[in-house]
Amino acid sequence: MKIFHLIFSLLCVVSCALCTGSSSDRFEKYQSLSRFGQLDLDDSSYEDIISEPHDYHVAVLLTATESRFGCILCREFQPEWDLIARSWNRGSQKTDSPRLLFGSLDFSNGKGTFQKLIEGKLMLQTAPVLLLYPPTVGPFAKVDPTPLRFDFSGPISADQIYSWINRHLPDGPKPPLVRPINYTRLVSAVTVLMGIVTLFTALSTYILPIVQNRNLWAAASLISILLFTSGHMFNHIRKVPYVIGDGKGGISYFASGFTNQFGMETQVIAAIYAVLSFATIAIAMKVPRMGDAKSQQVAVIVWAAVLLSMYSFLLSVFKAKNSGYPFFLPPF
Amino acid sequence: MAESPFDALLKGESGRNTRGLLRIIILCTVAAAAVSSRLFSVIRFESIIHEFDPWFNFRATKYLVENGFHSFWDWFDDRTWHPLGRVTGGTLYPGLMVTSGVIYHVLRFLTIPVDIRNVCVLLAPAFSGLTSLAMYLLTSEMSTSPSAGLLAAAFMGIVPGYISRSVAGSYDNEAIAIFLLVFTFFLWIKAIKNGSIMWGALTALFYGYMVSAWGGYVFITNLIPLHVFVLLCMGRYSSRMYISYTTWYALGTLASMQIPFVGFLPIRNSDHMSALGVFGLVQLVAFADFVRGFLPGKQFQRLLTSMIIITFGVGLVGLIGLTVSGVIAPWSGRFYSLWDTGYAKVHIPIIASVSEHQPTAWPAFFFDLNFLIWLFPAGVYMCFTRLGDEHVFVVIYSVLASYFAGVMVRLMLTLTPIVCVAAALVLSYILETFLVISPQTFQAKSRDTSSESLRSARSPVVGISSYISKLIMTSSVVIYLLLFVAHCTWVTSNAYSSPSVVLASRLPDGSQYIIDDYREAYYWLRQNTPANAKIMSWWDYGYQIGGMADRPTLVDNNTWNNTHIATVGKAMSSREEVSYPILRQHDVDYVLVVFGGLLGYSGDDLNKFLWMVRISEGIWPDEVIERNFFTARGEYRVDDEATPTMRNSLMYKLSYYNYNTMFQTGQAIDRVRGSRLPVDGPQLSTLEEAFTSENWIIRLYKVKDLDNFGRDHNSAMAFDRGNKRKKATKKRGPRVLRIE
C-alpha cells in the first residue's frame, strides 16, 4: 500500500515535470520560431500550441486574408497584427514580461480548426476573431480554459488591440508598442520635396506664369467648392458605396433618404451644379461681350434653356430624395 | 409724358437722395421680413425657449438679471454635475447673456415692462435683422453697385441655413454670433482697404465681442491671418495691411483674453498660432521693406535669404520645443476632428455622438441654401475678375467654409454668409446687365484687357441688344427668386420652427395634436419632489431639467467631464446590482428616461443607448462591452432575441417596465424599433416607477432607499411576492468543500 502510494506520487512528480518541461519546450520552440513576427499556424501546430497543459498565454488571430474570401477587414488588420507581435517579441526579451505567443491561423491553412470552432461552443461566425488562451498551469493559470475572444466590429488599430491584450495579461512589465519609423517614406518625401524645390528654381521662368495664372486658381477654387458642396466629404468620412443595385438587375443612382447618398450620386450633383454655375457665368460674363446681336440672342436663349432644364432636373432629384417637398419646375 | 416727374426724382442731387431713401426702405423691409419669418414657432406654439442649450443660456441669463454682473462672473453652480459642481462663470461664453441682460435693463429703464423670457425668445430674430444690415455693408464693399448689397441682405434675411439656428426661441450663442461674424468681417475689409487704425481697432472690438459670444471665433482668428498670408504670397504687401493687421491682432488678442473661459488660450493653444505666426511674418516683411530702401540690391538679396532661413529655423525649433514641453497646448479635440476626419470617431466618442458633428450630405446643402448653392461658384468666379484684396478674402472664405460645412453639419452656419455674398454679386451683375434699357450705357465701361485678367473678361462689354433676351433672362431670374422665397418659407415653417420641447403631430382628421410630455414631466418634478432631489438622466436632458424642473442633475449638455458622463452611461448599461451602488454613491433620487416606443418618437434613449455604452466602455472596458449588446449576428435588438446583457441593462428595464400592461398579452409593440416585445416584461427591484407622462415619452423612477431589514432589494421583492420559503429550502444541499 505504502509502496503503491510512493509509486503513485513519483509518477505524479515525473508526469508533472514532463508536462511542464514539454510546455516550456514548446514555448521555447515557438518563441524561437516567432522571433521576427507572429507564427503562421496550421491545424496541427494550432492544436499543438494550445494543447493542455501550457503555462504561457497564446493570442491567435483567426483570419481569412486570401482575396477570394473578400474579407477586407482581415487584410487591413494583418499588418497591424504583425506589428503587435514584432514589438512584443522584440521587447519581451529585454524585460521580464509574461510569456505570450502570437499566431495567426488563416482559413486556408486551418479549415478543420475553423470547422471545430464554428460547431464548438465558441460559435465562431465572422472573421477575423482574436482568441486569447490563458495558461492552464503555472502561477497565472485560469480555471476556465476557454479563450477570451475579441470580435471585430469595424476597422481597429493596433493600439486598441494591444491595450485589450494587456488588460487580460497578469500584471508585470510589458514591452511598449513600437511603430517602426517608415524611413523609405521619410527619405522619399524629403527627396520629392527637394526635387520640387530644385525644379521650381530651375524652371521658375516657365512655372511662375502658371502659378500666377488667375484662370488656374479660379478653376481650382471652383472645383474644390463644387466638390465640398456636393457632399464629397460625406463620402470620404462615411465610406459610402459608389452605386448599388436596385434589386431588379439595374442600378439605383440615388440613395433613398435625406441623409444618405452614394458616391456616384454626388458626382452627378456636382456635375449639375457645375453646369448651372457655368451657365450663370456665361450669361453674366460672356453674353454681354458678344458683338454680334444675332448670336448673342441665340446664346441667351440656349443658356437660359440649359439653366431652366438643369435646375428643374435638380429639383426633381431633390424631390425624389425628400418626398414631402412641394416645389418643382416645368420640364421634369 | 410721365417721364418728366420721374426725371426730377432720379437725376442729380435729389436723385441721390431718392435712391438713399429707397435703400433705407428696402433694408428696413428686408429686416422686417427676416424677423417675421422667424416667428412661426411663436405663432404656432407659444413664446418658449427651444431645444437644449438655450435652456441653459436662459437659466444663466435669469441668474445674471437677478444677481448682477459680478456674481454672474464668479458663479459656481452646485446644482449641476452633482456632486462636482461647475464653475459656470468661468466656463461659458458670456456674450449672449450679457447682451440680453443689457437689453432687458435698457427696456426697464425706458419703463417698458418686459419679461426676461420674451427678451431671450426674441433676441435671435432681432439680431437676424441686424445681420442682414451687416450683410448689406459687407457686400457693398465687394461690389461697386449697391444692388448687390441689397440682394445679399435679402438673401441673408430669409436663407434657411441661417434661420435654422435663429428662429424665435432658439436662444443660443449663434443667435448673436453670426451678426458679429459678418460685421467683424465688414470692419476687417474696411480696415484693410483704408489702412486706418480706427477701423482696425473697431475690428478688434467686435472680434472681442465675438469671442465673448461663441467658440466659433476661432474661424475669424484663422481666416484673417490666412487672408493676410495669401496677400503676402501674392506680393501685395502694403502699409495699409501692416497697420490694419497689427492693430487688429494686438488689440483683438488682448480683448479676447479678458474672457475667463478663453484666458491665455490665444497665446498657448495651437488653434491661435497661425495668427501669431502671421503677426511675426508681417513684422519681418515690414522690416525687409524698410531695409530695401537703404541697401543696394545684391546685399539686400543676401540679407533677405539669410533672414528667411534663420527665422524659419528658429520658429520651427521653437514651436516643436514649446509643444513638446507642453507650454503650447495641442489642437483642441473639436478643432482637430475638422482636419483628421476619423479622429473623433476613434478618440472622442462624445463628440462623434452629437448629430451636429456629423458630415453633411448634399441634400442638406440644397435644403439650406436652395439656388444660392449653384450661384455660389459663379459668384466666386466673378471675384476673380477684379481680384482686389477684398475679393481674395471672399475666395479664401468660400473654399475654407465649404470644406468645413462638408465635414460638419453645424458649420453650414459659417458658410451661409459667404454664399449670400457670392450669389448676390453674380445675380446683381446679371440683373444690372439685362435690366438696362439702352444698350449703349455699358459701352464705356470696357475693362482693361491685360493678360492678368480672366480669359472670359478680356473682350470689352457691349451690353445686351435685344429686348427678347432681356425679357427671357429677367423673367427667369424673377421665377427663380420667387421659388427661393417659397422654398425658404416652406423650409422655415416645416423644418426649423419646432421647439422640440413641444412636439406637434396631425390627427387623422387633420387637426393639430400637441405632445407636451417633456414639460408635463418636468413640472411634475418641480411640484412633487424636494428642491434638492438629484435627477439622473442622459446628458442631453441635463439643461432642460435644470431650466424647467429646477432640480440638480448629474450630467448636462456642457460635456466637460467625460468620466462623469461615462459613470451615468455605466449605471444605465449595467445590471441593477451594479447600478444601484452607483446611484447610491451619487445621491440619485430619481432617474429619468425618454422612451418613444408608444408614440414612435425616434429620438429616445434606447436609440442613443449605444453611445452610452461606447462612452462608458472607453472608461471601463472590462465591465461594459459593446459587443454584448448585439446579438450573435450583430444586430441591435430589443425583442425576444435581445441579448441577456441588453435585457438586464437598467436602460432596457426602465424603458419597458410595465409597458406590457398597455397591450393584450404578447401584443406589446415598440413602434420606434418596430419589434414585438417579450411576453414577460422586465422586473425592477431597486427602483420604483414614480411618474410616466401622457404619451410615455418621459418615464421617471424613484431610487429605493436601503431596505429596513438590511436585505438586498432582490430578496425583499421576492419576499413581498411571497416566494421566500421555497428558495430557502431549495438552497440547502449537501456540504461542499469550497475550492479556491
UniProtKB/TrEMBL annotation, chain A:
GO BP term, example: protein N-linked glycosylation via asparagine
Membrane topology field: Multi-pass membrane protein
Residues in the signal sequence: 1-19
GO cellular component: oligosaccharyltransferase complex
Cell compartment(s), UniProt: Endoplasmic reticulum membrane
Gene3D superfamilies found in the cross-reference section: Glutaredoxin
Keywords tagged on the record: Endoplasmic reticulum, Membrane, Signal, Transferase, Transmembrane, Transmembrane helix
Pfam (any one): OST3_OST6
Protein family according to the UniProt entry: Belongs to the OST3/OST6 family.
Name this polypeptide is given: Oligosaccharyl transferase subunit gamma
Main location (coarse class): endoplasmic reticulum
GO MF term list: transferase activity
Function: Subunit of the oligosaccharyl transferase (OST) complex that catalyzes the initial transfer of a defined glycan (Glc(3)Man(9)GlcNAc(2) in eukaryotes) from the lipid carrier dolichol-pyrophosphate to an asparagine residue within an Asn-X-Ser/Thr consensus motif in nascent polypeptide chains, the first step in protein N-glycosylation. N-glycosylation occurs cotranslationally and the complex associates with the Sec61 complex at the channel-forming translocon complex that mediates protein translocation across the endoplasmic reticulum (ER). All subunits are required for a maximal enzyme activity.
Residue ranges crossing the lipid bilayer per the database entry: 186-208, 215-234, 268-287, 299-318
TrEMBL record, chain B:
Pfam families, A to Z: STT3, STT3-PglB_core
Keyword Ribosomal protein: no
Disordered, as annotated region: 717-740
Residues of the Oligosaccharyl transferase STT3 N-terminal domain: 22-422
Keyword 4Fe-4S: no
Membrane topology: Multi-pass membrane protein
Cofactor(s) essential for the protein: Mg(2+); Mn(2+)
Protein's pathway: Protein modification; protein glycosylation
GO cellular component terms, A-Z: oligosaccharyltransferase complex
Cellular compartment(s): Endoplasmic reticulum membrane
GO biological process, one term: post-translational protein modification
Residue intervals of the STT3/PglB/AglB core domain: 535-584
Recorded GO MF terms: dolichyl-diphosphooligosaccharide-protein glycotransferase activity; metal ion binding
Domain of life: Eukaryota
Class of enzymatic activity (EC top level): transferase
Listed Basic residues bias regions: 723-740
Membrane spanning stretches: 21-43, 91-107, 119-138, 144-163, 175-192, 212-234, 246-267, 273-291, 303-329, 364-384, 391-409, 415-437, 477-496
Catalytic activity: a di-trans,poly-cis-dolichyl diphosphooligosaccharide + L-asparaginyl-[protein] = N(4)-(oligosaccharide-(1->4)-N-acetyl-beta-D-glucosaminyl-(1->4)-N-acetyl-beta-D-glucosaminyl)-L-asparaginyl-[protein] + a di-trans,poly-cis-dolichyl diphosphate + H(+)
Keywords: Endoplasmic reticulum, Glycoprotein, Glycosyltransferase, Magnesium, Manganese, Membrane, Metal-binding, Transferase, Transmembrane, Transmembrane helix
EC assignment: 2.4.99.18
Record function comment: Catalytic subunit of the oligosaccharyl transferase (OST) complex that catalyzes the initial transfer of a defined glycan (Glc(3)Man(9)GlcNAc(2) in eukaryotes) from the lipid carrier dolichol-pyrophosphate to an asparagine residue within an Asn-X-Ser/Thr consensus motif in nascent polypeptide chains, the first step in protein N-glycosylation. N-glycosylation occurs cotranslationally and the complex associates with the Sec61 complex at the channel-forming translocon complex that mediates protein translocation across the endoplasmic reticulum (ER).
Family the entry assigns: Belongs to the STT3 family.
Stated name of the protein: Dolichyl-diphosphooligosaccharide--protein glycosyltransferase subunit STT3
